[in-house]
Design a protein that fits this description.
488 residues; binds alpha-D-glucopyranose; 13 helices; globular; five-stranded antiparallel beta sheet; alpha/beta
Length: 488
């Protein structure tokens, strides 16, 4: 748990803190009985430092084959300096020096993330074969798909040349061109290999990559016909609440992914990013995914929630797949005042306590009751991150019966998205509705209008669903789904 579970010491087991393999099987069976599918997260760029492969590699010493699964190298300057200038996504350099068996400082090993997450060398045939078996282990158990964690990290330019990072450079992977440790083309060999394995199984087994890369064209390479099926869309997640930028991202995504025959995907929040209720309530509404610094500043949570609700209707009306992050259906804000002693994200330590990291979007969900732990766990048990006492009004139980709640909005939108055939099949066609207004049709009988301007805009046609009160006009930061002929 050095990085919220993204440091795996046994790929074919469940951490006892979470349960057992029998629990996992029961979860799969229950989910399938409910018509839900389950995707597992495969963290294959790196293992935990506690993985037996890594402990054996450290123990074996320089030159021994156990070290070949990882990137062990001699340092520069007589061993004192790291082998190259690569940087870690969590701040600082991407290399840590080990102590050899004789107790002296020895070789360095590469970690794109925390030092507890040593990178595997995917050029090693043994690594490839061992992960084939890991994939099969989970697919045989009946999982419906696999999320490929940190996919662009899984290949490095041979020889590990310097990247030319400036001193103090941040891990801004969305700006890098020709970087030797990120989005290197060799990664696609691994993805093709996995796709072949997945295709050998019955049913629709889905692969989705996490690939924070430069643009829609680079992203489209991950979803070519013989690679992954879909990929998260970080251009959309990071886009500010601005009509022009959102429209450009939507068009570029559909075009670039369409060229390789892949569906577009849309996502507003994740376990790695400031929740969008909070982002959208700030002066700067974009996100910093990929390492870019984002200005903070005061937040207006009412405004953020209004926009977040409108953004949900925008997202769920777009063609392709939508990913929702747990808690956005409750309109949860980022928890920005977690006590420092509670912070767990490695970013906090690695940034020298200047960046608090991602814990604020990972606070356990409030289910019921009027005080923590809000039904998430038994009363009296303190979850790993404290919940704000003020979340009583945001619990599932509190929102359940309220038709104006964010939970009700998400449920209604998901229901319509499933029941309206045009939302599954019809292409998007833009409709002009004025500056700072996004309006598009999906087929002849469905229109989505999102008002990002500062003024109300007229709408007509029966309103199927709206993100806020509207009658004849759509107020600022509000979205509506309209039906039937006569929509204009
Ligand atoms: C991905 C995960 C993130 C994790 C990192 C390292 O970016 O989403 O949570 O820290 O990979 O595994």
């Amino acid at each position: 748990m050095a990085d919220g579970g993204y440091d795996v010491s046994d790929y074919c087991a469940i951490d006892p803190r979470f349960g057992t393999l029998a629990d996992a099987d029961a979860l799969l069976a229950d989910a399938h009985a409910l018509g839900l599918r389950v995707i597992v997260d495969l963290v294959a760029n790196h293992t935990s430092e506690q993985h037996p492969w890594f402990t054996a590699a450290v123990a074996a010493g320089p030159g021994f084959p156990e070290r070949r699964r990882y990137f062990f190298r001699d340092g520069r300057a007589g061993g004192e300096e790291p082998p190259n200038d690569w940087i870690s996504a969590f701040g600082g350099r991407a290399w840590t020096r080990v102590r050899e068996a004789d107790g002296r400082p020895g070789q360095w090993y590469l970690h794109t993330f925390a030092p507890q997450q040593p990178d595997l060398d995917w050029d090693d045939p043994g690594v490839r074969e061992e992960f084939d078996a890991v994939l099969r282990f989970w697919l045989d158990r009946g999982v419906d798909g696999i999320r490929v964690d940190a996919a662009p990290a899984m290949a490095k330019v041979p020889g590990l040349p310097d990247a030319g990072h400036a001193p103090g450079a941040r891990f801004e992977s969305r700006t890098w061109v020709g970087n030797p440790h990120w989005d290197v083309d060799g990664v696609h060999d691994v993805l093709r290999r996995w796709r072949l394995i997945g295709d050998g199984y019955d049913g629709d087994r889905l692969f989705v990559t996490e690939a924070v890369v430069r643009d829609a064209e680079r992203l489209s390479r991950y979803v070519r016909p013989d690679e992954m099926h879909t990929s998260f869309n970080f251009d959309y997640l990071t886009a500010p609440w601005e009509a022009g930028r959102l429209r450009a991202v939507i068009d570029e995504s559909i075009a670039a992914l369409g060229r390789v025959g892949a569906p577009a995907t849309w996502v507003l929040s994740s376990h790695d990013e400031t929740r969008h209720v909070t982002r959208f309530g700030r002066a700067y509404t974009g996100a910093g995914f990929g390492g870019a610094a984002v200005p903070g500043g005061p937040v207006d949570l009412d405004l953020g929630l209004r926009r977040a609700r409108a953004a949900a209707l925008l997202t769920l009306a777009l063609p392709g797949s939508a990913y929702l992050y747990q808690g956005e259906e409750l309109g949860l804000p980022e928890v920005e005042d977690l006590p420092e002693e509670a912070l767990q994200d490695p970013t906090w330590e690695r940034s020298g306590h200047t960046e608090r990291g991602r814990d604020g979007c990972r606070v356990p969900l409030p289910w019921s009751g009027d005080r923590p732990p809000f039904g998430f766990t038994a009363d009296g048990v303190v979850p790993w991150l404290p919940q704000p006492p003020g979340w009583a009004a945001l619990t599932v139980a509190a929102q359940q019966g309220d038709p104006a709640s964010t939970l009700a909005l998400y449920r209604a939108a998901l229901h319509l998205r499933r029941s309206l055939a045009d939302l599954r099949t019809a292409p998007l066609t833009w409709h002009s509705a004025g500056d700072d207004v996004l309006a598009f049709d999906r087929g002849p009988a469905f229109r989505c209008v999102v008002n990002l301007s500062a003024h109300p805009v007229p709408i007509d046609g029966p309103v199927l669903l709206a993100s806020g009160p509207c009658a004849g006009t759509l107020p600022p930061d509000t979205a509506a789904w309209l039906s039937g002929p006569g929509t204009r």
